[in-house]
Amino acid sequence: MRINIFKIVLFLTVSFFLLYNLKAEKIWKEPFTSYKFNCGKSGGRIFLSISSDPKSFNPIVAKETSTTAITGLIFEGLTRTDPLTLEVLPNLAKSWKTDDQKVWVFYLRDDVFWSDGKRFSADDVIFTFKELIYNPNIPTGSRDIFTINGKYIEVEKIDDYTIKFILPERFCPFLRALSQDILPKHKYQSLVRENKFTFSLGLDTHPKDIVGTGPFRIKKYLAGEKVILERNPYYWKKDACGNRLPYLDEIVFVILPNPDSALLKFLEGEVDLYALRPKDLAVLGPQIKRGFSIYNLGVTFGSNFLVLNQNPDINPQTKKPFIEPHKLVWFKNKIFRKVISFAINRKKIIDLVLQGLGVEQFSPESPANKIFYTDNVKKYNYNPKKAKKLLFSLGFNDKNKDGILEDSSGNKLEIDFFTNSNSPERIIIANIIKKDLEAIGFKINFLPLDFNNLVTKLTATYDWEMVLIGLTGGIEPYFGKNVWASNGDLHVWNPTKKAQHPYEVKIDDIFNKSAIICDEVGRKKLFYDWQYIVSEHLPLIYTVLGYSLYAIWDKFENLYPTIYGGAFSQIEYVYMKTKK
C-alpha cells in the first residue's frame, strides 16, 4: 500500500486549523458524572460498525477485540464493573462474603437462564474454572490471571446456587476478576472431553450453539458483511418498572474495514455510531445540527506501541530461527530499543495525526487510569541526534555511504515493519515512524496487514520483526498479566514462556506480589515500579494516546457514554426515542 505522506500532511494541516474553530464552539459533550435509567419500551435495532470480522465467538481463547466486542454482549461474569464509578457490583452472583479474603462464598442468582432456556447454576461456574480456565490443553489468558504465585484457586459447589472459592493466598483483584465470562456446562462439556473446545465456537458455528447469559445472542453472521445479535428472551435483568431487559430487539454490527466508509455510512444514517478520528471533527462539526451529538470522553484507556520480536527459538516449519541471529542481538539490546524511542517524533504525530487531541506515552498505563497511573517514568523526548549517537556506540556505521547503517559485522540496519491495514490513522503513524527511523540510518520495509492476520503472526506463527499495535487496557493492571508475566499467553516479544532478562523476573515478582498485597498504597507502589521498569527496558516502545471521541445519532434514551464502558455503556438499558 503506497501512502502519499505529503498529501496527508497537507490535509491534516488544513483540518487542524478547522479544528481550532470547532473546539472554540465547544461542539462536543463532556463525560457524564451521573446517570439515571428511565423505564423504556422494547423494540428497534441499533447499527454499529466494526473494522473486521470477529476471529471466533469463543470468549475463553479470544485475544483480539474483533471477537470480544461481540462476545461481551453474549456472555457474563459473576461480577461487573460500574462503567461510571468503577465500583465492583453483583451480577450473576447476587452477594458474597469472606472472613479472611482467602475463602469466599458466593450466592448465585436463581433466576438466570441461558439463552437456550436452560437454567444457570453453580455447575456452570465449576465447569468454567475447572474444565476451561484451568485446562492445560486450552490456551486462555484467563489462566494467567487466576494463577496466584503458581497456584490455582480451588472451586467447590456447596449447593446449586452457592459456590466456595478457596484461594492459595489473598488475591486483591479477585472480585473484579470475577467479571470473567461463565460458559454453560450442558453445552460445551462434551467438546472439552473430546478435546475440541479450543477450536469450537468458530465463525461457522450455528447461532443456536453459541449460548450465554448476556442480554443478546447471535442471530446471524455473514462473513465480510455483518454480525446480527438478537434480544435474549431469557435475559434475567429487569428495569425499575419490572420490564425484562434489554429493550432493543437487535444489534447489527456492520463490517467496515475502511473508516472513511464507516464515516460515510454514519453521515448517511446507515450506522448509528461512529468512533471519530480527530480529523473527522472538521467534517462532522459543521453538520452537528443534522441530529447527532459528539462526545469527548477524554484520553483513552490502553496503549499504542512498537514491539520487536525477541523470540530466540527455531521455526519448526522452516528449521530456521524465527529472527535472524544478528537482528536478535539488536532487538534484545535495550539501548537499541531506546534508539527507536528517541527517534520517534511523538509531538508531530499528535499535531498532524491526532490534531492536538492526544498525549505522549512512555509506559504501559494511560492517564485515564486514575488509580494506578504514574508520570514518574523514563521519557524519550524526540532526539534524533542522541538516537544516532547511541547507534554509533553500538557499532553501527555507514561504511559504504549509502545512507543505511551497518552493524560491526556488515549487516544492514534493515527491519520489516507491520501494522493493521484497517486503521488508516495507524498506517499514517507507522509511516511517520518509518521516516523518523530512516532519517537516522534505518531501512524500514513497511507492510500493513489484515488485523486478524497480524494477530496470528504475533501469537501463533511468530514470523514478524517489528509491529505497531495497541492493547485496550483497563482499570486493574494485574489483568494484563497474560502480557507481562514471562510465561504469559500474550508476552509477545518473548513467547518462550521463560524470562530472558532480569527485568522480566522483576516484573514477574511485581505481578505476583500485587495479587497478595492488598493495601492501596502498597499496590500503587508495585505498579509504579512496574511502569518505571518498562519505561527503562522498553520491551514495548510506547508512542501516543488519543482521545475517545464518538458521534451518535440522537435516537436513543438512557444513553450514557463513559470512557470505561464506551459509547453504549450498559446497552441493555438503551431504548429508541419515540418519533415525533
CATH class of the largest domain, named Alpha Beta
Tally of separate helices: 17
Low-confidence parts, pLDDT < 50 over ≥5 residues?
1-24
CATH topology of the largest domain: Dipeptide-binding Protein, domain 3
Radius of gyration, in angstroms, nearest whole number: 24 Å
The overall strand count is 24
Q: Keywords for this structure?
A:
single chain; 580 residues; alpha+beta; D-Maltodextrin-Binding Protein, domain 2; five-stranded mixed beta sheet; 17 helices
Q: Can you offer a commentary on this structure?
A:
There is one protein chain. By secondary structure, this protein is of the alpha+beta class. It folds into three domains: about 45-55 and about 200-300 and about 545-575, Periplasmic binding protein-like II (D-Maltodextrin-Binding Protein, domain 2, 3-Layer(aba) Sandwich), CATH 3.40.190; about 65-200, Dipeptide-binding Protein, Domain 1 (Dipeptide-binding Protein, domain 1, Alpha-Beta Complex); about 305-545, Dipeptide-binding Protein, Domain 3 (Dipeptide-binding Protein, domain 3, Roll). Helices cover about 30% and strands about 20% of the residues. Strands 1, 14, 15, 17 and 22 form a five-stranded mixed sheet that branches. It is globular. It starts with a helix and ends with a strand. Mean pLDDT is about 90; it is low at about 1-25.
Write the layout of secondary structure elements.
Blueprint: H1 5-24, E1 28-29, E2 45-50, H2 65-71, E3 79-81, E4 88-90, E5 93-98, E6 103-108, H3 122-133, H4 142-145, E7 147-148, E8 151-152, E9 154-159, E10 162-166, H5 174-177, H6 185-193, E11 216-222, E12 226-231, E13 250-255, H7 259-267, E14 273-275, H8 281-284, E15 292-299, E16 303-308, H9 325-332, H10 334-343, H11 346-352, E17 358-360, H12 384-393, E18 414-420, H13 424-438, E19 443-449, H14 451-461, E20 466-471, H15 481-484, H16 502-516, H17 520-537, E21 540-542, E22 544-553, E23 556-557, E24 575-576
